[in-house]
Amino acid sequence: MTALDKKLLRDLWDIRSQALAIALVIASGVATSVMSLTALDSLRVSRDTYYRENRFPDVFASLQRAPSSVARRLAEIPGVDHVEARVVSPAKIELSGYEEPIIAALVSVPVDRLPGVDRLFIRRGRPVDVGRLDQIVVSDAFAGIHGLSPGDRLGIIVNGRRRMLTISGVGASPEHIYQIAPGSVFPDFEAFAIVWMARETLAAALDLEGSFNDVALAVRPGASVAEILAQVDEILAPYGGLGAYDRGNQLSHRYLSEELRQLRQMATMFPAIFLAVATFLLNVVANRLVGTQKEQIAVLKAFGYSTGAIGWHYLKIVLAIAVLGILAGTALGAQLGKELGELYMRFYKLPYLVLVISGPMVLTAGGLSALAVALGTAMAVRRAALMAPAEAMRPEPPARYRTTVLERLGFGAWLSPASRMIARDLERRPAKTALSIVGVALAGGILMMGTIFDDSFAALVEIEFRLAQRDDIAVTFVEPRGIEVLSELRHLPGVLRVEPLRAVPVRLRAGHRSYRTQLEGVNPAAELRRLLDHRHRPLDPPATGVMLDDFLGGYLGVRPGDTITVEELTGRRRTRTVAVAALVRRYLGVGAYMEISALNRHLGEGIVFSGAALAVDAREKDAVYAALRSRPGVAGVVVRDAAVARVRETMGNNMIVFAIFASLFAATIAFGVVYNYARISLAERSRELASLRVLGFTRREISAILLGELGVVVLAAIPLALVIGRALCAVMMVGLQTDIVRIPVVVDRDSYAYATAIILASTALSALVARRRLHELDLIGVLKTRE
Amino acid sequence: MKKKRRIARWIALAVLAAGVGYSFYPQAVTIEVVRVDRGAVRSALEEAGRTRVRNRHVVTAPVAGTAGRIALEVGDTVVAGQTIVTLTPPMALPLDARQTEEAGARVAAARAALAVAGEELAASVVAAELAAAQRARLEALAAHEQVAAEAVQTAVGAALQGAARQRAAAFAVEVARQEVAAAEAAARWSSERVRRNTTVLEVRSPVAGRVLARFRQSAAPIQAGEPLVEIGDTADLEVVVDLLSADAVVVFPGMPVRLLRWGGGEVLDARVRLIEPAGHTRLSALGVEEQRVPVVLDFTSPLSQYERLGDSFRVEANFTLWEGPDVLRVTDSALFRRGDGWAAFVVEEGRARARAVGVGHRGERFVEILDGLREGELVIVHPDDRIAEGARVTWAP
Question: Phi/psi at B76 (nearest 5 deg)?
């Protein structure tokens, strides 16, 4: 063991608390990175495995009805591997003891064979038995919430008739990972179920024996999906085909992909920002830390060690700390990643989780931190080693001796000698001061990134569900109906107000860009469903023209005054050009809107509505639910309050878990930075402070000087931290915008307070610890002169 | 000096703590407000209905015959007594060659039968004369008592019978003669296809009005009772609305009704005249059975306002169940349920205070307030679960 190695070990022990703090900072950055990416990669691989094992289809199409022979023609399309023709239908569920409306999507399964595509994953029980055609398989999320098990019976109302069916099993399918009821934007597992039934039973209930109204295809690898889509459209067009689509447009896959994309954004942005901040801070800290070792470096040089050997020695110290941090961070990150992955698995209702820890990512994260620290060290060593040893061993003279700005301005009388020392020291090396302030500000800024989700999400819910949508119940009809339906709804006891809704699926085109969405009708002077402009004020729809979500407007590249092409996907299937009248602001989903009677005229089908928004007397809501359930013309009922509450629970929890971890790590980083600052300042000025002690200053007074400087830097950093934090949040949210949800950047007052409080608390804690070290100043050593 | 510094330090610390504390203090909730005011509240019931001509006359064919072409078009004005259509008697059945021959043969047969009857008449004349002569002879002998009385009676009987048979034979000849005439008539019509100018019947309109419907146009044979045209006076309209039976109970004759969305700009006025005593079953728009009762309304607006309305035109009838022109009212979206009653959040000094509200009639947008709120107070619209009693609130001006 060389002398330098012994020195290494002793030095490490000396600076153990600072080393620990630095290691913690590195560990936090690495852990965040590893955690998010582990969770993300695991989710992705799990999803892909699930798709593969359960044969997630590649092409989907809905149609009015076609005889089963048409399915054979679809199978003959070149490139198609399997065709599964199915019968699907919306339905209502009657569950004893549960009054709120439950809607279901019924999907047929063949009972005599395994389906070629979209196989069920049975969690409990068994698939539908060949001999028992009154059995069903229910989605496991729904069954879990309502405590249903195989053997229970469920009332299903389909096509106006009610029948009691027995649950044979509880399961899931890759086509319905994300389960969203028609008319909703968020999954609601309590009020929406997927039910798989024997094909014969469902076809009989819908008078579709020998026919099908939905089809899923598996495509051979390498085949052109676009070609197949076109051919499927051609074959199904005479049967009322609504347009075939591939995986990218399949509801569940699309939502899940968007979620994973958002997760990926968060998983890369958060750690990237953390790592960047951590790296920067580590650089500064390493620089200053090695800077305090100036005298020792000079001694070593005087003894004859080369600059390189000295540099390597210090590098080893710092790298040891870094490696410790990286290992700890990786282990912690992997464990947290596994748990986060399992949380997401439960949330997204994936049947299993395949844990994947991405080696390259870990190395990158760790490598960056190590590199930063190494650079800082190298720079400091080089600076120290370049000085002549004798000069280096002398304590540094003050850089410039002059009065501070404050004193010149006349505030000199206000400052005690201690304060004057602080002020002069700060002003003497403005770069160092500025760097310190920025460092603490960055650490404080990332604290705010954790809390923003709570505030922003609450704002989103408030804007969407308090300002834009204020109905109690949204009803969709099986088929569009005329004005009499509004009168019928208004007459239901307990219904206070009815506003009609009309929505048709369309494809919008502007130039070479197109987007498939719903064109919705909007009532002028509406109370329940309103459009908001970018300032969240209600917007009255103009008499003609279409309004677009500003996100969609940006995507299509159109502004008010431009024209777009609207292609109807149902009904008369006409294509017309319309002028864009205005842009509206929505945070959930994207859509196009038109004044409702203008829409009816545009579609040329008379005055018909596809649904209605109702305001309901709270006392009568059970009666209203029952009345709606008994009407065969009603396809779906969505209760807003319940849905919002569940959205808050599920989506909110999802993001907040991530945010909590982020906050913890940010707090760790903040503490680590402040603590290091305090300790390094102490180390840098130990001679001066010891001298002051010798001169007669009390411990309290010198601690005031040291901590006072710390306090000034922190106080100056706090406002900057809040500004930086806000900016970081905005940057992150911009990256998280998707066409499904856009989170507004809202920072409540308490977020600022939270960040401030954490910084202050870290400061206080660091101050206490640093103060204790002041007692151990080497007073005697100061009195000796250096040779 | 030191003390001042220490005080300054404590003040700075206090300010900082206060700043942080203030930031943690919950922010005011943003809401929308509306003022309680006085104004009109109208409780209404709206249902779609259609116009109906009050007196409809369906003109039918009085007898079977051949109807001529109806020249009238739907929408034409007719006066009372105007000819709608001309009826002619039905054409006789035309005969083909076989039937013509048969008819001829029947004529010959009838003539032969006539000849038979004539000969029979001659035979009966002879028989009658013989019987009469016998009678005369025996009666002469009876005067001298040279024959039995029975023989005389027999002869008298025979003579009378003979005379009767002669008269019968004469009638039979008449019958045969008429049968010849009938056979000849049938044979004559078979050989001539001549339309004889016989009497025509003019079917006339009973009233003045306009043609609302025309059931046939071209000339064709017609049965008795078949409808020809429907005539009514479109200036004499009523409105019939099928109300749910529960609503029909609430409505009373004389209730004012407003008619909207009939195509013209203005709102028309009408009054309930009659609520029919019997309801009928109808399937609703959403597929359940309902009981509906027809309610008849009379227009009260002047004809000039609605003269463009015709028969069976759609109108939307808005029945005024209750109207209060100047009552204390508030928007209905400000009220929420509390127990069995209603409550509202009133803004007092920037804070939300829940207050029980007594509610009267409920209109389309406004609700009558009986107690609990005063005019001019601000209440929160669409209150949600963010608002608790005493919460601080703020709103956009």
Answer: -70, 150
Domain that holds residue A114: 58-255
- pLDDT average, residue stretch A659-682: 78
CB A117 within 8 A of CB A217: yes
Say if the Cβ atoms of A632 and B288 lie within 8 Å.
Answer: yes
pLDDT in tens, A557-612: 898 989 999 988 777 778 888 999 989 988 887 889 999 888 888 888 778 899 99
Q: Is residue A476 part of a domain?
A: yes
**Is the Cβ–Cβ distance between A728 and A721 less than 8 Å?**
no
Q: What SS3 class is residue A76?
A: coil
Query: Chain B window 304-323: which residues touch A at a Cβ cutoff of 8 Å?
Result: none
Q: Which helix (DSSP H) or strand (DSSP E) does residue B301 occupy?
A: none
Query: What pTM was estimated for this model as a whole?
Result: 0.74
- pLDDT of residue B1 exceeding 60: no
For A144-190, how does the pLDDT look when each residue is reduced to its tens digit (9 = 90+)? 999 999 999 999 988 878 889 999 999 999 999 888 887 677 778 88
* H or E element at residue B259: strand B256-260
- For residue A406, the model assigns a pLDDT of 64
The class level of CATH for B57-91+200-232 reads mainly beta
In angstroms, rounded to a whole number, what is the distance separating the alpha carbons of residues A598 and A610? 15
CATH of B45-53+234-323, one of 2.40.30.170, 3.40.109.10, 3.10.180.10, 1.10.1650.10: 2.40.30.170
A505: its two tokens: 């699926």
Say yes or no for a CB contact (<8 Å) between A487 and B47. Answer: yes
Q: Please tell me the distance in Å from B97's CA to the nearest CA on chain A.
A: 58
Examine the fold and report which residue of A603, A618, A641 is the final residue of a domain before the chain moves on: A641
Asked if B289 has any chain A CB less than 8 Å from its own CB, the reply is no
Match domain B25-43+325-395 to its CATH number in 2.40.30.10, 1.10.1740.110, 2.40.420.20, 3.40.190.10: 2.40.420.20
Measured CA to CA in angstroms, residue B355 lies from A203, B33, B316, B338 at distances of: 55, 15, 38, 10
What is the C-alpha to C-alpha distance for residues A385 and A397, in angstroms, rounded to an integer? 18
Residue A450 maps to a domain: no
Domain presence at residue A230? yes
- Cα A759 to its chain centre, rounded Å, is 25
Which chain B residues contact residue A461 at CB under 8 A? none
**Is A139 within the bounds of a domain?**
yes
H or E element, residue A162: strand A161-172
Q: pLDDT tens digits, residue range A456-500?
A: 877 888 888 888 888 899 999 988 888 889 989 998 989 999 999
> Using 50, 70 and 90 to split pLDDT, how confident is the model at A413?
low
Q: Is B195 on the interface with A (CB under 8 A)?
A: no
User: Would you list which residues of chain A are within 8 Å, Cβ to Cβ, of chain B?
Assistant: 160, 414, 416, 419, 462, 466, 470, 477, 481-485, 487-488, 490-491, 496-497, 527, 537, 615, 617-619, 630-634, 715, 748-750, 752-754, 756-757, 760
DSSP string of A392-446, one letter each residue: HHSPPPPS-----HHHHHTGGGG--HHHHHHHHHHHHSHHHHHHHHHHHHHHHHH
The total domain count for chain A is: 2
Does the interface ipTM go beyond 0.85? no
Q: Is B372 left (phi over 0), alpha (psi -120 to 50) or beta?
A: left
> A with B: how many residue pairs have Cβ under 8 Å apart?
83
What's the rounded Cα separation, in Å, for the pair B331 and B333?
6
Domain ranges of chain B: 25-43+325-395, 45-53+234-323, 57-91+200-232, 97-191
| Residue that finishes a domain, picked among A225, A255, A285 | A255
Window 93-132 of B, Cβ < 8 Å to A: none
- Please indicate whether, in this complex, the C-beta atoms of B333 and A470 are within 8 angstroms of each other: yes
Torsion angle of C-alpha atoms B267, B272, B274, B277, degrees rounded to 10: 100
